[in-house]
Amino acid sequence: MLIAAAFTRPHDLGQLLATGLKWLLLCALSLGLVGPLLFIMGQAAFTSDGRWAGLQPLIALFSNANFLPMLGRSVWVSGVTALVTVPLAYVFAYALQRSCIPLKGAWRGIGLLPLLAPSLLPGIALIYLFGNQGLFKELMDGGIYGFWGILLGEVFYTFPHALMILLSALSQADARLYDAANAMGASRWRRFTSVTLPATRYGVFGALCLVFTLTITDFGVPKIVGGAYSVLAVEAYKAVVGQQQFGRGALIGLLLLVPALLTFAVDGWLQRRQRAQTTSRSEPYAARPDWRRDIPILLALLAICGAIVLMLAVAMGASVVKLWPYNLQLTWQHYDFDNMDGGGWLAYRNSLRLACGTSVIGTVVVFGGAWLMEKTRRTVLLSPLLRMLCFLPMAVPGLVLGLGSLLFFNHPANPFNFLYGTMSLLVVCSVVHFYTTAHLTAVTALKQLDPEFEAASLSLKVPLIKTFVRVTVPMCLPQLLEIFRYLFVSSMTTVSAVIFLYRPDTVLASVAVLNMDDAGDVGPAAAMSTLILLSSALASLLLHLVARGAVARTQGWRRTR
């Protein structure tokens, strides 16, 4: 009788459907995230015959004479990278938000360009610049293979991530504070240290934690230019791929999970302590032209943009010449991927398939899941579980997720074993890996919508799904397209999350770059990296053009009359 009554009321049927979809999302996240994490923990805690190993594997790992020095090197290079990258990103963000320099849109685009390239590209560019046959080899004298190579490559790789956080931190300010400082005769430096820096300290600390975590868990740059300077991420990769020591790889993977979890916990603590910098009484801050500030900061911006463009231009230029830098005759021979190791043009087509599948499926799942959590009735147990699982991927490095997925889906007793090595598993892993950032984007958009839309739907007895399709989706279309773009570009450039999951017929372009570099084909590796960069840029441009037309049709209500 209860079921029959529910089916006679459209709204109750919608709530029943929403609850069912929430449980389905919970099962999907558990399959793609919780299962791999449990298996990687089990691999580290149990012996091969299933017996509890206790702390013995951890003791054996730390007893190794090479492990503690390698751990120290990983922490050191990650810390130095954070201390170099964040000040550079702060200067860049300050120039865009708090100065009157021209062409801010162009500088911002250049600053974010490294997001479109795989993390292997800066390593390849550094070899062409400072390697044994590099353009400026005398400056480094072979020292690029080691600490300095990892440092420079990671600064390039992590710079846009820090920049995005600091742009947000510097985007708003209360002009009254600056007026008061001026009235009291405070110098520029005093205004910066007393007003600007304290207001952005949480963003600075968040950027430091993010850069540290990205560096210590990245193996792309160290794999290319690390040389004898071994770090944890590369050691985990070698333990699994080269030595088939899954227990050792899992244990190192769990150690890589520690800084990410600490960063996640500290960030949550800072978010609770942070107070709003802009209140209802605040006055918007507008920078005024000042050549004594704008000219030096413009010169600093030009230097940073010049370094970014140089790295990209060298990698792209080396892909179309015969032998850099000795024979600069133009050629397309490096793009003949089918006659080289690495996966051929199949790898590039597979990356496009992965990017399209991840962006389409991921956008539907992420936005739909965020809508279910924010705009439908919450349950006591289900809602907190879903919220936790949506935020957990942010604290799990791609290398750890990929290794856990290998152990979980490759297990013979797993009923989903058939997914291993397929494009479907690569899509699942990619969606899970990039879930949190996309989810936060969707939740931010949905929180801006008045709950009265759902209340009106309830009073008019309109099904929730119809309200979602006819009202919510059109109003959140800009954020939907941003989620799509983010998932597409991230899937094209990712390496760590998929390095353990491919087969010869599902090899990806980013993995092919690594394989070609291992085979000594640095030119073809640069060519494939260039192809990934151009594809990501073209997709971003096309989505921007689509967004302009779509937003013009669906966002007319935002325009003032």
Number of separate structural domains:
2
Helix content range: over 70%
CATH classification class of the largest domain: Mainly Alpha
CATH architecture of the largest domain: Orthogonal Bundle
Which segments are poorly predicted (pLDDT under 50) over 5 or more consecutive residues? Answer: 1-8
Q: Would you spell out the secondary-structure blueprint of this structure?
A:
Blueprint: H1 2-8, H2 10-45, H3 56-63, H4 67-97, H5 104-111, H6 120-130, H7 137-140, H8 147-169, H9 175-183, H10 188-199, H11 201-217, H12 220-225, H13 232-242, H14 246-273, H15 291-318, E1 321-323, E2 327-330, H16 344-375, H17 382-391, H18 398-409, H19 423-433, H20 435-447, H21 452-459, H22 464-475, H23 477-493, H24 509-518, H25 522-554
Antiparallel strand pairs: 1-2
Helix pairs in contact: 2-14, 2-16, 2-17, 2-18, 4-8, 4-11, 4-15, 6-15, 6-25, 8-11, 11-14, 13-14, 14-18, 15-25, 16-19, 16-20, 16-23, 16-24, 20-23, 23-25, 24-25
Q: Can you describe what's shown?
A:
- With 561 residues, the chain is mainly alpha-helical.
- The protein folds into 2 domains: 1-42 and 337-554, MetI-like fold; 64-327, MetI-like (MetI-like fold, Orthogonal Bundle), CATH 1.10.3720.10.
- The chain has 25 helices and 2 strands.
- The protein has a two-stranded antiparallel sheet.
- A hairpin with a 3-residue loop joins strand 1 and strand 2.
- Helix 2 packs across helix 17 (382-391).
- The longest helix has 36 residues, at 10-45.
- It is globular.
